[in-house]
TrEMBL record:
Alphabetical list of InterPro entries matching this protein: Glyco_trans_20, Trehalose_PPase
Coiled-coil regions, chain positions: none
Record's GO cellular component terms: cytosol
Record has Aminoacyl-tRNA synthetase as a keyword: no
GO biological process, one term: trehalose biosynthetic process
Similarity annotation: In the C-terminal section; belongs to the trehalose phosphatase family.
Membrane-spanning intervals of the chain: none
Name of protein: Trehalose 6-phosphate phosphatase
GO molecular function: glycosyltransferase activity; trehalose-phosphatase activity
Domain of life: Eukaryota
Keywords carried by this UniProt record: Glycosyltransferase, Transferase
Length: 753
């Protein structure tokens, strides 16, 4: 249940959703299958459950489920767990005994069979709860918006290119389908969620909007989100017409996870440039302050399931395949690549590099071979067909040019390949080539390393391996022993292949041992446990705060306030105001009397009229408090005879228009300005958009109009520079929001009588 402190606001927000969002699809309704705990009231901020026993709700686009036709089985299919999916493998890292519920769509083969009976069957037998989307909605959501707009853009493919290359221009109707699908997921989660107890873990870009829908319904929900795709640079992300909606949705999670620091850095940059949000790093954790909540950012790549992979490597089927491959490729230098068929895997570039290798090193002809396994495409479209056609054409050309009877330089396998056959190729190949031009993580090099290490069929073979790895792949930072390449440079990749084949066995062993040590200790259980613990830590303050929902539709957000916060109400203020005989009213100018974003800061006639009305009451003493210069404020408020002004943060004070300006007992020697101003001028010339504000008592360097990242960096440098230059002066150098300010030191402040 929603927090009582935001109940009315949430009702208001929900009432506006029908206009702000597309209609929700009709989904199958299940009975409440879990018991619900009533949300703690704001007056009793105590979590009712033990974190270790909290249920984990894993939400992904697809359920980790396989369905094989079988007329004799219930519903005409045999259902089994798909243990190859990350969403299921992560269970190994969750606390023992903690219940786990998976929510997602059904496999395509059984999507048309969705019914209450099937949903209850999967829930009872697998703890899987299906989200049932109509076929046309799922097609628009997945193949339309996700796969042909969002996914290419996250991989740096702007929709300026022809749609045949995989990218589509933004389509508002497809975006509404995306929101409708995400709302259907939220409906399913809502049916079973106990928000005070459960931990919700959302996976990947298909469900980017889901945190907003859940936060709207459950302000205290414990929500984690992990993005398995790249997060592009802010310049790319800011091209999305609904960029604020998607970024705000991520900020509605408590914990946001990324594979690499680059992805997290791009996310933080987008938050800074779009919302002006800064982040802080404290004790190893990165946090973004967002309306009273701290959104934690986590950086850790997904590992592999060591137990599952070891069982595959040690299987008799794998051993038989290894022996067959060893015999078939006897005397050859075997390299292997395994990729999905899509635009970004660089299969064509890899084949061109193989061709270049054989051109530049004729001695490798008849010996070096590249086996490329092409996994089935995950989406549909002309782009997939063109990738397949290109790969076949280049491989055929290379084989025709350099092939001989019994020797095929490029072996392209574009059929279904079992896990045992893949493991056998990994074990038999002395080099793995991963040439993707952009990929979120790609665990293939991890799997290759383990297969080379754990294989027991080749008893006398030393444990060694070499990986040629694109620097634009998410696993690249974690594999420091790989030969990193720019996949766009065919010559560089060819030279890397040659270096791998000519590398000494001793160096191959050292690189292999380094990789295996990392992969075996940072497996999927390690990743899941780390994320789960950080999600609990990120949510530990939920019950010590009050939560208020504000905004409509995808603009919704939650304001978190301390337990002692009291909302000011007119009913409370007016009677107290009338009972009081001596009132001091202090009004901040910028951001209170005048809007923060207003360019013209001159007070309007209405503001002057209101201030005069307040000042006419003999029981009131009204002051404008500002950091602005006294001359500017005097000019603006000349019509206000009885208004007091505190200028330059109180350095100058005037009790009425006709009274003289008074100063606090501060140092009056301003010789320090002669040293500070040249330093500020230096940074102003070097930082486009920055300015210097000259006050009688202070100097202020503003960088709010400069580039956010560069301005912030320059402000840090300026702060250090001024502190060194003015170390022996009676001043204080401080940094504020978009400013660096130098003020006189306070000695004894003499208040006016």
């Amino acid at each position: 249940m929603p927090s009582l402190s935001c109940h009315n606001l949430l009702d208001l927000a929900a009432a506006a959703d029908d206009a702000a969002l597309p209609p929700s699809t009709a989904s199958l309704r299940l009975p409440r299958v879990m018991s619900f705990a009533t949300a703690a009231s704001p007056a009793s901020p105590t979590s009712p459950s033990m974190p270790a026993l909290a249920r984990r709700v894993i939400v992904s686009h697809r359920l980790p489920l396989r369905a094989a036709p079988d007329a004799a089985s219930p519903f005409g299919f045999v259902f089994t767990v798909d243990s190859d999916t990350v969403a299921y493998q992560l269970r190994s890292g969750l606390p023992a005994g903690a219940p786990v519920l998976h929510i997602g769509t059904l496999p395509p083969s059984v999507a048309d069979l969705a019914s209450d009976e099937l949903c209850n069957y999967l829930l009872a037998n697998f703890s899987f709860l299906p989200v049932c989307l109509p076929a046309d909605l799922h097609s628009r959501f997945y193949h339309g918006f996700c796969k042909h707009y969002l996914w290419p853009l996250l991989h740096y493919l702007l929709p300026l290119t022809p749609s045949s290359l995989g990218g589509l221009p933004f389509d508002r109707a497809l975006y509404h389908s995306f929101l409708s699908a995400n709302r259907a997921f939220a409906d399913r989660v809502t049916e079973v969620l106990s928000p005070d107890d459960d931990l919700v873990w959302i996976h990947d870009y298909h469900l980017l909007a889901l945190p907003t829908f859940l936060r709207k319904r459950f302000p205290r929900a414990k929500v984690g989100f992990f993005l398995h795709s790249p997060f592009p640079s802010s310049e790319i992300f800011r091209t999305i017409p609904v960029r604020e909606d998607l970024l705000r949705a991520l900020l509605n999670a408590d914990l946001v996870g990324f594979h690499t620091f680059d992805y997290a850095r791009h996310f933080l940059s987008a938050c800074s440039r779009l919302f002006g949000l800064d982040y802080q790093s404290k004790r190893g954790y990165i946090g973004i302050e967002y309306y009273g909540r701290t959104v934690t950012v986590k950086i850790l790549p997904v590992g592999i399931d060591m137990g599952q992979l070891r069982s595959v490597v040690s299987a008799p089927e794998t051993g038989d395949m290894v022996r067959q491959l060893t015999e078939a490729y006897k005397g050859r230098r075997l390299m292997v690549g395994v990729d999905d068929v899509d635009l970004f895997k660089g299969i064509g570039l890899k084949f061109l590099a193989m061709e270049q290798l054989l051109v530049e090193h004729p001695e490798l002809r008849g010996h070096a071979m590249l086996v490329q396994i092409a996994n089935p495409a995950r989406s549909e479209g002309r782009d997939v067909q063109e990738v397949q056609d290109e790969a076949r054409a280049i491989s055929a050309r290379v084989n025709e040019r350099f092939g001989t009877p019994g020797y095929t330089p490029v072996v392209l396998i574009d059929r279904e390949v079992s896990v045992y056959e893949k493991a056998a190729y990994y074990a038999a190949a002395e080099c793995c080539v991963m040439n993707a031009v952009r990929d979120g993580l790609n665990r293939i090099p991890y799997i290759y390393t383990v297969c080379r290490q754990e294989n027991t069929t080749l008893v006398d073979a030393p444990k060694r391996s070499v990986i040629v790895l694109s620097e634009f792949v998410g696993c690249s930072p974690s594999l420091s022993g790989a030969i990193r390449v720019n996949p766009w440079s065919v010559e560089s990749v060819a030279e890397a292949m040659n270096a791998a084949l000519r590398m000494s066995e001793a160096e191959q062993r050292l690189r292999h041992e380094k990789h295996y040590k990392y992969v075996s200790t940072h497996d999927v259980a390690y990743w899941a446990k780390s994320f789960d613990l950080d999600l609990q830590r990120a949510c530990k303050d939920h019950f010590s705060r009050r939560h208020w929902g504000i905004g409509f539709g995808m603009s919704f957000k939650v304001v978190a306030l301390g337990p002692n916060f009291r909302r000011l109400s007119v009913e409370h203020i007016v009677p107290s105001y009338r009972r009081t005989d001596n009132r001091l009213i202090l009004l901040d100018y910028d951001g209170t009397v005048m809007p923060e974003g207003s360019i013209d800061k001159t007070p309007s006639n209405e503001v002057i009229s209101v201030l005069n009305c307040l000042c006419e009451d003999p029981k009131n003493r009204v002051f404008i408090v500002s950091g602005r210069a006294k001359d500017e404020l005097s000019k603006w408020f000349a019509p206000c005879e009885k208004l007091g002004i505190a200028a330059e943060h109180g350095y100058f004070t005037r009790w009425s228009r006709d009274s003289p300006w008074e100063t606090c007992g501060l140092a009056v020697d301003f010789e320090w300005k002669k040293a500070a101003e040249p330093v500020m001028n230096l940074y102003t010339e070097a930082t486009d958009g920055s300015t210097i504000e000259h006050k009688e008592s202070a100097l202020v360097w503003h960088h709010d109009e400069a580039d956010p990242d560069f301005g912030s960096c320059q402000a840090k440098e300026l702060l250090d520079h001024l502190e060194n230059v003015l170390a022996n002066e009676p001043v204080v150098v401080k940094r504020g929001q978009h400013i660096v300010e130098v003020n006189p030191q306070v000695s004894a402040c003499k208040l006016p009588s």
